[in-house]
Hints:
GO terms for molecular function: protein heterodimerization activity. Helix content is about 25%, strand content about 20%. It is of the alpha+beta class. The protein has one domain (about 5-139): N-terminal domain of TfIIb (Single Sheet), CATH 2.20.25.
Amino acid sequence: MKLLTLNFLTCARKTCKSSPASFPLHPKDAELEQVETEMNAVFLRNILPRLEWEAMRSITTELGLPNLPAETPASEDLVEKDGDGDEATGGPPSQIARDLHALLMETCIASGKLVCGNCGHEYAVKEGIANFLLPSHMV
């Protein structure tokens, strides 16, 4: 399960739907793995405005990963600048872009748990797949 996915998940319990504490789900006892993927600068540029940046910052802090900047990087920060400071057309990705790609697309939770901050329910993650099926008494 890629770290990017955690930015779009919330607790499945009906009682948690209206609580802001149910997002993001907090990783617990997470075993991380790096899965190399090809850099896709267009995807990265398009996904940045859709990210809940504070949630991503808290997740990376909880996992002990390098801290993200306080503000979401601008799309022009994802491409190396030429000598004049202009955005290089089709230029190589910047260090920020490479770091974000490694964090969001290559860092995966192989096993562990995702915990709701509202109700405390734990969702198991095994072989990179989270189980969001709730027992019948919790639905």
